[in-house]
Task: inverse folding
């Protein structure tokens, strides 16, 4: 286990040490102490290593992650795991706005609540939130799965493309072109797998699925008020 | 019955309700949707044509053409980047998306730029292997849509350009209509094939300049502080936008005036939003000077640059380089009269064809149709672009020498005069024959 004191040794040193780890590195376990809400912690990683941050992080922790597993033992600021490609990011506390924004792959788990615009413009990432999510979540979400064990705020899935949304609690309102959909066996399977990987204690049958009505895919003047 | 003995007035067309205007009203009434098109503003606005160089005279002597050197090299990204971009010429190729342009057209831009010793730029839709492979220096755009954005390509880039806005549509997002969302384009953008794609107008994970500063930190950390980070803004509030871009940590500010082209957007946006390029440069330069950053943070100006004279004028007003989009496409063969018959069939004519979003470009450049694409030869296109860039450079050097400058960057506002009051007022350059722009005390007023 390598321990890195972020306060003493600085952000640049941390990210360059983590970038230096390649496949097959022996230094597969890293502990980052004294994060104190710093921004851009463990960004651009590309190796199957495990990084544990012992505290809360600022903006963009785990940004553009590939392969690595990043645990935040606190809360995460805006844009945690933004544009993640693969790997796993787990936040023990709450996450601020834009969690998992534009992510292309990998798994983001938020054990607490996520704020507004969770999963905005997501492009293949899987996101599991144990608590609630804020307004405008999954705005323009293109693909991937967003699973919410609690409630969702206003305008869920506005201008949604092909992403799948699963919510166990209440949805305050649906955004333009987002509708409730039937839960088919393949969806229950996806959910069961994600819930298990996210360590979430819930049954797939308790969720409702939402997705795109695909009415805004091609411009039609009669839908103009929805834009 | 009319009384033929009374003289008739000739039928008179209205200036306000011109044929153009009426045809748009009829089109809107028939379709219920705004007009979408490519290209830049078509209206006449004060432009570089309204400025002239003074040349040498008794008080200044010129340099000898061809014999005495006139340098054109530019270095972009000297502020923070470990590897700034070195260009042989002060003219770059602007970001144009794969999707709006075909793969071979992107390849040709890379070839031409590389042969001329300059950079080219990706666009909305991501980086293609064609353009990376054929571009010695490639700027990777970081856009609100984040289509195709990934860290592997980010690390392959020679610079990163964060697009906040475009001159053609400051405040607007991208648009790519179904006809052009081919399998390849759909896959790169992670979208269903054939949809009318609207890309976001704001970035998904930051909002103001304070957030942007942190976003830049993240991008620098991911790329180990190696490559320059540009911020591209449309010509909206150039003084403040430049100031905030510098504050947010930009290495380079790219400023795109309202004449700037676009692949597709609403005509109302192109013609009615944004400030002319000419009026944007001095405020941006003033902002750089006020922050003590002129020449430390470089300024790249685009929007309606067509010749070496335009480039030289932008440099004289204080820019470090210029960037071209439309002119590069014309050099490749866009809107060429040789396709006139086909433009006619599409209801247009060479020079006016701007329905690039429909994907039926006879020249095979702004299309994803394999048959049309095959008409365009990327090697020949690259050669033509190289030639055009060389001519632009020679023209700029010719002017610089005539003004006695041994580097194009030594051109200055004092080398210029304006032929219209508007251009004089907008650029702060004296009206021809006068000492200053409208000679009243206190002129010019503050910048916007
Ligand atoms: C076909 C086309 C596609 C464009 N695509 C993009 C783009 O993806 N991203 C961007 O920032 N600007 C885009 N632009 C704008 C150019 O980068 C540039 O700002 C503009 O073309 C400069 O003005 P000019 O065309 O008068 O030279 C595009 C322009 C054209 C003509």
Result:
């Amino acid at each position: 286990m390598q321990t890195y004191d972020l306060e003493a040794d600085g952000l640049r040193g941390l990210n360059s040490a983590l970038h230096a780890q390649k496949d097959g590195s022996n230094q597969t376990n890293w502990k980052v102490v004294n994060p104190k809400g710093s921004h851009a912690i463990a960004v651009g990683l590309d190796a199957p290593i495990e990084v544990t941050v012992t505290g809360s992080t600022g903006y963009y922790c785990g940004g553009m992650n590939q392969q690595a597993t990043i645990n935040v033992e606190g809360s995460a600021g805006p844009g945690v795991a933004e544009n993640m490609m693969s790997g796993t990011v787990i936040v023990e506390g709450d996450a601020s706005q834009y969690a998992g924004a534009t992510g292309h792959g990998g798994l983001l788990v938020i054990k607490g609540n996520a704020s507004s615009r969770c999963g905005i413009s997501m492009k293949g990432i899987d996101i599991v939130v144990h608590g609630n999510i804020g307004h405008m979540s999954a705005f323009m979400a293109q693909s991937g799965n967003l699973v919410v064990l609690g409630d969702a705020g206003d305008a869920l899935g506005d201008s949604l493309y092909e992403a799948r949304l699963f919510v166990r609690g209440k949805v305050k309102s649906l955004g333009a072109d987002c509708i409730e959909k039937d839960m088919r066996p393949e969806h229950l399977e996806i959910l069961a797998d994600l819930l298990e990987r996210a360590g979430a204690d819930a049954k797939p049958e308790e969720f409702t699925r939402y997705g795109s009505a695909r009415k805004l895919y091609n411009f039609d003047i009669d839908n103009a008020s929805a834009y | 019955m009319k009384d033929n003995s009374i003289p008739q007035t000739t039928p008179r067309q209205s200036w306000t309700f011109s044929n153009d205007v009426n045809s748009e009203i009829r089109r809107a009434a028939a379709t219920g949707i705004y007009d979408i098109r490519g290209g830049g503003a078509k209206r006449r606005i004060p432009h570089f044509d309204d400025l002239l160089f003074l040349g040498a005279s008794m008080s200044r002597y010129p340099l000898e053409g061809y014999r005495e050197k006139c340098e054109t090299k530019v270095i972009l990204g000297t502020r923070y980047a470990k590897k700034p971009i070195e260009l042989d010429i002060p003219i770059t190729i602007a970001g144009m998306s794969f999707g709006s342009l075909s793969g071979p057209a992107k390849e040709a831009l890379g070839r031409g730029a590389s042969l001329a010793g300059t950079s080219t730029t990706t666009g909305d839709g991501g980086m293609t292997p064609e353009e990376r492979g054929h571009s010695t220096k490639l700027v990777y755009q970081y856009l609100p849509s984040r289509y195709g954005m990934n860290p592997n390509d980010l690390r392959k880039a020679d610079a990163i350009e964060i697009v906040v806005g475009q001159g053609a549509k400051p405040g607007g997002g991208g648009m790519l209509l179904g006809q052009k969302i081919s399998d390849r384009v759909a896959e790169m953008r992670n979208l269903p094939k054939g949809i009318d794609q609207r890309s976001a107008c704001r970035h998904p994970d930051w909002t103001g300049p304070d957030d942007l500063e942190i976003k830049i930190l993240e991008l620098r950390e991911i790329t180990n502080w190696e490559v320059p980070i540009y911020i591209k803004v449309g010509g909206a509030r150039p003084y403040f936008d430049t100031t905030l871009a510098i504050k947010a940590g930009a290495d380079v500010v790219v400023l795109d005036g309202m004449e700037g082209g676009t692949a597709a957007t609403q005509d109302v946006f192109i013609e009615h939003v944004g400030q002319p390029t000419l009026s944007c440069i001095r405020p941006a330069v003033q902002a750089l000077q006020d922050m003590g950053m002129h020449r430390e943070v470089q300024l790249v100006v685009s929007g309606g640059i067509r010749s070496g004279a335009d480039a030289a004028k932008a440099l004289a007003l204080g820019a470090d380089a210029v960037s071209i989009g439309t002119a590069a496409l014309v050099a490749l063969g866009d809107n060429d009269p040789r396709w006139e018959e086909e433009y006619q069939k599409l209801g247009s004519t060479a020079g006016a064809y701007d329905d690039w979003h429909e994907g039926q470009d006879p020249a095979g450049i702004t299309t994803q149709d394999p048959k049309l694409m095959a008409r365009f030869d990327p090697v020949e296109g690259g050669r033509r672009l190289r030639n055009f860039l060389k001519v632009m450079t020679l023209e700029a050097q010719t002017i610089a020498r005539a003004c006695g400058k041994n580097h194009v960057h030594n051109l200055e506002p004092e080398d210029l005069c304006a032929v219209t009051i508007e251009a004089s007022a907008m650029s702060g350059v004296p009206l021809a024959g006068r000492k200053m722009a409208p000679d009243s005390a206190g002129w010019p007023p503050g910048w916007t």
About this structure: The mean pLDDT of chain A is 96. Residues B 38, 40, 94-97, 100-101, 123-124, 141, 163, 166-167, 232, 256, 259-263, 302-305, 324-327, 366 surround flavin mononucleotide (CB under 6 Å). DSSP finds three helices and eleven strands in chain A.
